[in-house]
Specification:
84% helix
Length: 93
């Protein structure tokens, strides 16, 4: 399991306080390394964490950035999934 996926598991388990700083670090390191796939994954998981926390605008921003990166690197399946998550994250209940 990749570090990014492991941190997301913590978000799902309700441990976002631990996961979010580690996901942010993962994003920063991936940015420094030019690893756009890991950047997109970290942004995706950060967006989901923001959604769980009720921060809908932040969730939308992170998920949209993940979509932009996925389009740049040619991950069409990921694009469709992230666009759906973006709509869910910003939907008013």
């Amino acid at each position: 399991m990749s570090s990014t996926a492991q941190y997301f598991h913590q978000v799902v388990q309700g441990d976002a306080d631990t996961a979010v700083p580690l996901l942010e670090q993962s994003y920063a390191l991936a940015t420094q390394a030019g690893d756009r796939y890991t950047q997109a994954e970290a942004l995706r998981h950060l967006g989901i964490a923001e959604h769980f926390a009720g921060h809908l605008e932040a969730a939308r921003e992170r998920l949209e950035e993940s979509v932009r990166l996925r389009k740049k690197i040619g991950l069409p399946a990921g694009v469709a999934a992230e666009e759906a998550r973006t709509q869910m994250a910003t939907a008013r209940h």
